[in-house]
Amino acid sequence: MQIINEIVELETDAGINIYNITPELTKILEASGIKTGQVLVFSRHTTTALAINEYEERLLEDIKVYLRKLAPESDKYLHNDLHLRTNIPPDEPMNAHSHLMAMTLSTSEVIPVVDGQLGLGTYQSVLFFDLDGPRKRTVFVQISGV
Questions:
Q1: DSSP per residue over 14-37, as a string?
Q2: Is the full-model pTM beyond 0.90?
Q3: Buried-most residue among 5, 96, 99, 101 (CB within 10 A)?
Q4: Helix/strand/coil (H/E/C) assignment for every residue in 40-92
Q5: Is-contact 132 95, C-beta < 8 A?
Q6: What tens digit of pLDDT does each residue of 45-98 get?
Q7: Residues contacting 135, CB < 8 A, separation 6+
């Protein structure tokens, strides 16, 4: 069995943004030569997440509205009491809402590899959520199989 480790890098925009990383995963899988196995995709930040869903513009806007209802930026959060926290960088944002949104999603997804292709359904895409941009982000990809 082979194991391939790669990093996908993204420069994200301000606010909540959703990116389709399926094309990048497809390229990595094709280059690996693996025909049967799985792709693990792991979000490496506490205010980002992953999901498999449809990449459709109006649905993406619905998702953003839904997440903002779950954790409104304007609510009071203890994490945002920056003056009470220790060892924080000078540019620390007030982003408790972003952490809470990320917790409602997932940090990883596993996709089967079948005949050298991602085993996604017709309307499925691998979506990366940045809930606290703009930032430089990385996603860890591990492909295992034969």
A1: SEEEEEE-HHHHHHHHHHHT--SE
A2: yes
A3: 101
A4: EEEECCCCEEEEEECCCHHHHHHHHHHHHHHCCCCCCCHHHCHHHCCCCCCCC
A5: yes
A6: 999 999 999 999 999 999 999 999 999 999 999 999 999 999 999 889 999 999
A7: 11, 12, 45
